[in-house]
Specification:
single chain; 2 domains; Rossmann fold; five-stranded mixed β-sheet; alpha/beta; five-stranded parallel β-sheet; 13 strands
């Protein structure tokens, strides 16, 4: 059986929240459906079987899980789940794309402050307080178990885990800690699992957050990111795929401008893109300056 390349859909939900804050108007859902067909076709040329897991499926799956849950929910996901209690964390990198481990998301308090806040809101006194932990994707399981350890260190017990997408290796690591886990979609093996936003620079939460530079990312694509290491794109396909992603991104934001009847400037973006302007430049024009692609050594 061929392993699929799995993509979790999220740009429509993320841009809905962004447009509500900024006053931009999104193109209709049919436009996003066309983008996704084109992205799936492109990835299929590279990998063969591709599975794009839709936002509605993930949202509905979480809703069904929560109907039988009586524990306080702490969510690591801010896309599919509207939880009262959240931990806002992400993998951060330096300006060269080197991993720096877990950091708080842009615009949120430090992890230490977030953990203290959880203690204040959910403290069980001297007793360990049981909670349910939620994440959108469990791949290796290492990140989630780091969070479990952090929560246990402040007197919480993670009594159950809910995930949108779970990969068997990661799921098994969670189960090995005697923590029950339920996934909306579970796979035995995959080529990779990537969030859709990471192929569309400028969409909120896209790319790898650069530590120390406010709300600025390295995209998963050339010339700035590492499509091989971060998204399993083969070396001989990285340039072509990156160009495709920039074209898709330009098309997306041009459509937003059309329906909004106003231009989208770089400073309007839900996440700034490293090495591109941060103010006063129309984003689709800034994308045109990414002409160093042909001269970039693939990652």
């Amino acid at each position: 059986m061929n392993r699929p390349y799995v993509v979790s859909a999220d740009i429509y939900l993320l841009l809905q929240k962004w447009s509500a804050r900024t006053g931009f108007t999104l193109p209709p859902a049919e436009f996003f459906a066309e983008l996704r067909v084109e992205m799936s076709d492109k990835l299929s040329e590279i990998f063969g079987p591709v599975e794009l897991v839709g936002e509605r499926k993930l949202q509905q799956g979480f809703t069904e899980f929560f109907l039988s849950n009586s524990l306080p929910i702490v969510s690591l996901d801010r896309i599919y789940v509207g939880a009262e209690h959240n931990l806002e964390l992400t993998r951060a990198v330096d300006e060269n794309g080197n991993d720096l481990g877990l950091r708080n998301r842009a615009g949120t308090p430090s992890l230490a402050r977030q953990l203290r806040s959880l203690q204040d809101k959910l403290s069980g006194g001297t007793a360990r307080r049981k909670i349910a932990l939620v994440d959108d994707v469990i791949f290796s399981g290492d990140l989630l178990l780091k969070v479990v350890d952090m929560l246990e260190s402040i007197n919480f017990e993670v009594a159950s885990v809910y995930a949108g997408i779970g990969i068997a290796d990661g799921v098994d690591k969670v189960k090995a800690r005697n923590i029950p886990i339920a996934c909306v979609c579970q796979y035995d093996e995959v080529i990779d699992e990537v969030c859709e936003r990471d192929f569309y620079p400028g969409v909120p939460l896209s790319g790898r957050l650069i530590a120390g530079i406010e709300n600025t990312c390295l995209p998963y694509i050339l010339p700035f990111g590492k499509p091989g290491k971060w998204a399993s794109i083969p070396e001989d396909q990285q340039l072509d795929f990156s160009l495709f992603c920039w074209q898709q991104t330009s098309r997306l934001f041009a459509a937003i401008e059309q329906y909004s009847r106003r231009e989208v400037f770089c400073h309007d973006l839900g996440r700034l893109v490293a090495h591109l302007p941060t103010n006063g430049v129309r984003y689709v024009e800034a994308i045109k300056t990414v002409d160093a692609l042909a001269d970039v050594k693939v990652a």
